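can u pls check wat happens w/ magnesium ion
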Amino acid sequence: MTRIAPPRSDRLRRSVLSVPAINQRALEKTHELDCDAVIFDLEDSVAPDRKAEAHENLKAFLSGKPLEGKERIIRINPLSSPFGREDMQLVLDLVPDAVLLPKVDEPQDVMAVADLLAEADMPEDLRIWAMIETPRGVLNAASLAEAGRTPGTRLDCFVVGLNDLRKETGVLPQPGRTYLVPWLMQVVLAVGAYGLDAIDSVFNDFKNVEGLEDECEQGRAMGFAGKMLIHPAQIDAANRHFGPDEVALAEAHAIIAAFADPAAEGLNVVNMNGRMVERLHLAQAEGLVHKARLIAARRTARRKTT
Ligand code: COA
Ligand code: MG
């Protein structure tokens, strides 16, 4: 088996907004929001007696005006719950970009859904995302991420869910997430090994701007690709923190230029103003520039439509 992880997704996943499918007004609002992805939630945010209504809303919304430039993810209830099968049928009917599985404990949870998608001949680009939000999910993060290597599993992205994890473990919500950091890093390490993306957990206190800024900064430093969000007011901070900042972008351009210099031909390391830069930094730099281009293109497209 090759030891090199495949390249991570080149999609923007800085801001991943959860919208309860029960809330029509919030669904409509997603057209005008500047988030990279939208999770249409059928699970935790929808009361059991309103699941059918949520289905109707989502059907109407996703069959209407296309949601331009954003990944569309449907979060279903667990297959083992009374709602899981009907939610899966809705996924097959609506063909989003991804289906997000809650409370994933082991690779079999992913395989079961991958099989259903394959049996229904769903296109390969309908991906699977997994919530890592149970103690077993965290313990099994590596084998879950490795399952992404199995052809046909469609696994693309992990989303950490700390509300459930805190509930299951008794870890208290505290600034800095001191006792949760080892588990968060375990998830980041697992995705790093197998080339998936990891999205950091939601920040519940959506009026606390400073707290969100700190947590985004921390999530970025830990290596997350973006943050799951619950409110439109959180989008800007996530886009800023998880997007390439100007210093990093300038450096990326400098690295690309250094390796484009004919003097660097055949070299794996170059001297950039007294600092060693390796070819592996070149791939990173190109990835960053690619994401910056995606962001610029999004900005232009938004300007045209607003
Ligand atoms: N997506 C899209 N729009 C949203 C939104 C979301 N997640 N949350 C709020 N809005 C909209 C509201 O509809 C409102 O729109 P309006 O001004 O046109 O009426 C506007 O943003 C301001 O909302 P606000 O009044 O500040 O909050 P609220 O009381 O309407 O909603 C929550 C607060 C927490 C109930 C709501 O943000 C929410 O349901 N978030 C998602 C929860 C979720 O998905 N949980 C599961 C994952 S953990
Ligand atoms: Mg949850």
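The CA atoms of residues 19 and 27 lie 7 Å apart.
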